[in-house]
Design brief:
Rossmann fold, binds 6-phosphogluconic acid, 6-stranded parallel beta sheet, 246 residues, 17% strand, 9 strands, 3-stranded antiparallel beta sheet, alpha/beta, globular
């Protein structure tokens, strides 16, 4: 992470995963509408995984009653599984089915990471996504949402993997992810840390150790979620089960 001081992470606790998704969905819609009311077209970072899917569905349900103009929201991903575009494993396809197909996004502002249909390998896909991010500006995300794995990974930055040490790229690749599927593209720490607000979502007892580790001092290589902090805020939205070791 860059040297400047960043606010300490805060923890917000909720009863269960539905309550976490409800709060994060409402908070995101509020934040997006304030940005837009102030003339700023916001950039958000989506992630994959179970709680992200619950969140995306709730966002789709709540959006019609919000002031958010989705056609002015830039959509990015923190990581992606390097599989075919129509694979059920794709984070982007999951997000399309749950959210993006149900709101009025501008396709030109939805920046999927490359699939195996678009790039010859994950390394080439990561290079292409780096170029896409660079071409769009400074790569700063207004709100980045991240899941966290039981091993403390976030995006596709897994403990002790070489991808943790890539510093001169926006995006990099993973060929042997411990969480299937094995091939992935992920933003690097440097890119993730350009975010203003970082919102971790963690639910269930399987995440309790990882959440406690992510909020404790220690090596980033042991618990990669320690290494992502927003310049304005970092919030861990957790349910009681995931907060059990705090
Ligand atoms: O593509 C992925 O697999 C993710 O981006 C990954 O970082 C995920 O967010 C966490 O593993 C949490 O996933 P769960 O909510 O399913 O545990």
């Amino acid at each position: 992470m860059s040297g400047e001081a960043r606010p300490d992470p805060r923890v917000e606790r909720f009863a269960d995963s539905d309550a976490v998704a409800e709060e994060v969905a409402r908070r995101l819609l509020d934040v997006l509408s304030v940005f837009q009311a102030n003339g700023h077209d916001p950039h958000i970072g989506l992630t994959g995984g179970t709680i992200a899917d619950v969140l995306h569905r709730r966002l789709a349900e709540l959006s019609p009653d919000s002031n958010v103009d989705w056609s002015r929201v830039h959509v990015w991903w923190g990581d992606e599984r390097f599989v075919a575009a129509d694979s059920d494993d794709r984070n982007a396809l999951q997000a399309r089915r749950a959210l993006l197909d149900h709101v009025d996004v501008d396709p030109a502002l939805v920046h999927e990471m490359p699939s195996t249909d678009d790039a010859r390998d994950a390394e080439a896909g990561a290079a292409a996504y780096s170029a896409t991010v660079r071409a769009s500006g400074d790569g700063e995300l207004d709100v980045l949402m991240l899941g966290i794995g039981p091993d403390g990974h976030c995006a596709s930055l897994f403990p002790h993997h070489p991808a943790l040490h890539v510093e001169d790229q926006v995006a990099t690749y993973v060929l042997d992810s411990p969480k299937p599927p094995p091939e992935r593209i992920t933003l690097t720490f440097e890119a993730l840390n350009r975010s203003k607000a970082v919102w971790f979502l963690a639910t269930g007892e399987r995440k309790a150790d990882a959440v406690a580790a992510a909020l404790s001092p220690g090596e980033v290589r042991d618990t990669p979620a320690r290494g992502v902090r927003g310049s304005a805020e970092t919030i861990f939205f957790v349910d009681e089960a995931a907060a059990a070791r705090l």
